[in-house]
């Protein structure tokens, strides 16, 4: 292996300086401020503060509303990640079988990723709005009582579908790239041996795209925890009766609406710790089942 040699000893540090500065200013500094603020008791306007240690964390963890948000977040994140990845894998597999118009087919599936989360939420809200939504009218006409503004289960279903739809395009891109890297000779050899298309997929294709699947599992978990705020805010606003109030939405609601700055900061620290722990668990246990070529 050839070792890189720089003509000036300061050049490597100068090249790294912009990235280090961005990381410090936009990640470590806000994170340290959130950790510090989580130990303070502040008035709604931030004019007075009092150091209370871990009191905010104790109040948050003992709050039934927060525990309900934990349950909601688990259901929402698991459902969103599974649905988004399963549909994306199905569409990517179907795209590989298209003979004519494959480029157009892929382009249509990629477009939803360009839609902002809030806009995606509004699109689904308009389609399934109980008073004027087209699909809501079809559901009522079929005899199904549809009203996500009053029914918590229906509201959860709506935000899960909207969030998964927004993420399918991202997953689709990676699955298409992974499927194209699978050697055709292996699939053809299995077909000659009499293996069905389903067996070929689960015994040959899926194990070979396991690294991509694992990567998307981590990305979709983080997406469900953080990037779905705009969708939930646009569709349900955390309701009805906190049925769709995830942890990230509760951080916003307590901090910017209820002006509980210390409690909101404590929740953000806990949320960050949960996501870091989940990611570490995924790398520790799930990655063992991933085989890299």
Automatic annotation (TrEMBL):
Q: Name one GO cellular component term.
A: plasma membrane
Please list every transmembrane segment annotated in the UniProt record, as residue ranges: 12-31, 74-95, 107-127, 155-180, 201-226, 265-286
A GO biological-process term: transmembrane transport
User: How does the record classify its membrane topology?
Assistant: Multi-pass membrane protein
Alphabetized UniProt keyword annotations: Cell inner membrane, Cell membrane, Membrane, Transmembrane, Transmembrane helix, Transport
CDD domains reported in the protein's UniProt record: TM_PBP2
Residue span(s) of domain ABC transmembrane type-1: 70-282
Subcellular location, principal: membrane
Q: Where in the cell is it found?
A: Cell inner membrane; Cell membrane
Question: Subunit arrangement?
Answer: The complex is composed of two ATP-binding proteins (UgpC), two transmembrane proteins (UgpA and UgpE) and a solute-binding protein (UgpB).
This chain's function reads: Part of the ABC transporter complex UgpBAEC involved in sn-glycerol-3-phosphate (G3P) import. Probably responsible for the translocation of the substrate across the membrane.
Family the entry assigns: Belongs to the binding-protein-dependent transport system permease family.
Q: What is this protein called?
A: sn-glycerol-3-phosphate transport system permease protein UgpA
């Amino acid at each position: 292996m050839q070792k890189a040699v720089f003509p000036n000893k300061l050049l490597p540090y100068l090249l790294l300086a912009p990235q280090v500065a961005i990381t410090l200013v936009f990640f470590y500094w806000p994170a340290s401020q959130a950790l510090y603020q989580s130990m303070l008791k502040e008035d709604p306007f931030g004019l007075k503060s009092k150091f209370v240690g871990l009191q905010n964390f104790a109040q948050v963890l003992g709050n039934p509303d927060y525990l309900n948000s934990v349950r909601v977040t688990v259901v929402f994140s698991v459902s969103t990640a599974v649905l988004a990845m399963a549909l994306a894998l199905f569409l990517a597999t179907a795209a590989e079988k298209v003979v004519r118009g494959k480029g157009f087919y892929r382009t249509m599936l990629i477009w939803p990723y360009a839609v902002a989360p809030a806009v995606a939420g509004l699109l689904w809200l308009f389609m399934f709005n109980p008073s004027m939504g087209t699909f809501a009218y079809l559901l009522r006409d079929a005899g199904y009582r549809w009203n996500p503004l009053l029914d918590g289960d229906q509201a959860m279903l709506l935000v899960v579908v909207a969030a998964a739809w927004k993420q399918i395009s991202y997953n689709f891109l990676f699955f298409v790239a992974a499927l194209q890297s699978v050697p055709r000779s292996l699939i053809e050899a299995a077909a000659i041996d009499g293996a069905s298309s389903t067996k070929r997929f689960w015994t040959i294709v899926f194990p070979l795209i396991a690294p991509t699947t694992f990567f998307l599992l981590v990305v979709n978990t983080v997406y469900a925890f953080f990037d779905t705020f705009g969708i939930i805010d646009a569709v349900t606003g955390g309701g009805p009766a906190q049925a769709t109030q995830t942890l990230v939405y509760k951080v916003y609601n307590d901090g910017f609406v209820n002006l509980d700055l210390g409690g909101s900061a404590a929740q953000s620290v806990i949320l960050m710790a949960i996501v870091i722990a989940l990611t570490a668990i995924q790398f520790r246990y799930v990655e063992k089942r991933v085989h890299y070529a």
